[in-house]
Amino acid sequence: MREIFINDDNLQENDIDYTVVRVKGLIINSKNEILLAQNNNTYQFPGGHLDEGESLDECLQREIKEETGIDVSINTEPFLRIVSFCKNYFSMGKNVKSIIYYYKVFTDSRPNLAETNYDSLEIQTDFNLLYLKFADLEKFLNETSSNGTTNKNIAREMLYALEECRKVGVE
Asked: Which pTM does this prediction carry?
């Protein structure tokens, strides 16, 4: 598994107030489309925060079910881990170490909105799902990060994940 470290704020480990661990799934179907989530004014890969006592695989299965209504089995290891240090995380005055594990998930199951379980932020920010051709994802992320419809830091992480996903065999 490749690891990428991002530390634009030049923080040290002892500057960190707490660590957040998340998982993200690049959900790809046999038409070579990838499923994106849109909420809180940005596009991102489905996924979320690891709960206490939960494995990465369990977290990814739960998050995909909650956000898309799709039941998946995780039978692979993550292909990428991004560790980033962020000063004043979400303007909360805290320095945070964020660790995100990225998985490839292949399924032709379609989202089932009746089976989703959105949290209050996802409901308030009008959570939506969108399929996009895998080949168009890089251009889409560059355009949406330029026009402000994807957070630039999230888009950068997604582009790293896309690049690594291509290296390990997805086009």
From this structure: 0.93
